[in-house]
TrEMBL record:
<comment type="similarity">
    <text>Belongs to the formin-like family. Class-I subfamily.</text>
</comment>
<protein>
    <recommendedName>
        <fullName>Formin-like protein</fullName>
    </recommendedName>
</protein>
<dbReference type="InterPro" id="IPR027643">
    <property type="entry name" value="Formin-like_plant"/>
</dbReference>
<dbReference type="InterPro" id="IPR042201">
    <property type="entry name" value="FH2_Formin_sf"/>
</dbReference>
<dbReference type="Pfam" id="PF02181">
    <property type="entry name" value="FH2"/>
</dbReference>
<dbReference type="GO" id="GO:0051015">
    <property type="term" value="F:actin filament binding"/>
</dbReference>
<dbReference type="InterPro" id="IPR015425">
    <property type="entry name" value="FH2_Formin"/>
</dbReference>
<feature type="domain" description="FH2">
    <location>
        <begin position="1"/>
        <end position="354"/>
    </location>
</feature>
<dbReference type="GO" id="GO:0045010">
    <property type="term" value="P:actin nucleation"/>
</dbReference>
Amino acid sequence: MPLLKPEEEAIDAVLCDLMYFLSLVTGNSDMLGTELLESLLKMAPTKEEEHKLKDFKDESPFKLGPAEKFLRALLDIPFAFKRVDAMLYIANFDSEVEYLRRSFETLEVACGELRNSRMFLKLLEAVLKTGNRMNVGTNRGDAHAFKLDTLLKLVDVKGTDGKTTLLHFVVQEIIRYEGSRVSAANQNLKVEKNQQLTFQDDVEYRKLGLQVVSGLSGELSHVKKAAAMDSDVLSSEVSKLASGISKIAEVIKLSEDIPLKDSIHKFAESMNAFLKKAEEEILRIQGQEGVAFSLVRELTEYFHGNSAKEEAHPFRIFMVVRDFLSILDGVCKDVGKINERSICSSIRPMPMNPAVPPVFPGFSVRQPDGSSDVEGSP
């Protein structure tokens, strides 16, 4: 059963048509919205179709359908479809600006997170020192830096048990010191490098330290968001936004070329008001783009030494860190389970087999004085 009677449907159609015409005459894109403006733009006739509609005689034996009649009436409005195109740009403008503004803010925050994360820098230092200790006596045993890509390879280096990876070892090395640091900070105590710990203290410190290391993923949340972005897409969107302003300038120029009428005056007034606001917004967005991309380049040089090599994929640094954080989360869970098993084993001592080799042969986990290489790092 139809919701409207035939005469009500006719009235509704007329009102809709009036709304379309009034919106196009005044330049008020809010009256129609993005979807309706897109639909109108798709209806734009070709030059040939436009001529046929304008030349159509009412006394012709052929009758125009409702869509053709609507188009014919629409074409009576000067440069109607150029108006539609300009109004669609206006309707989308605020959401596009907001999307770009949030994207560039995310990039700026992500750069700050990565560069200022004490825990991330601590992990990098621990990895560097561990690598140098493993490569003592080789030409790679005195490295001062490494590329972040190396972080993804830490799980490829496995111990003799085939399960424990180098990243597991690094995490185990760092959590004890981090736990003692947090505990000391909570009690306003100084961390003693060679402090002798009870078994209970050691268990507590490792739990606290593991919480600190596993919290890195949440600490670098904007880095993970930045990893999902595409620099080419962002640059393209800024370019489209800037070039689209020409549509507004064009319809304003066309309005000036038509004898002044109230309807043309209202439309031009609406377009001019938007143009001033839009030009200022675009300049702000372009400035934000420049700042954000500059920060990403500086960050890449800070960690990789040469951002020129990453020009094809400027956001790759975020992708590497995101993938590493995913790996780190898994390793932290493993380390938590390993430590739980160690606690149980300590409570119920198992007979030790002196013939069992260490997981990483020739690699001393603790120094003779009980200190760790990563403990004294900043």
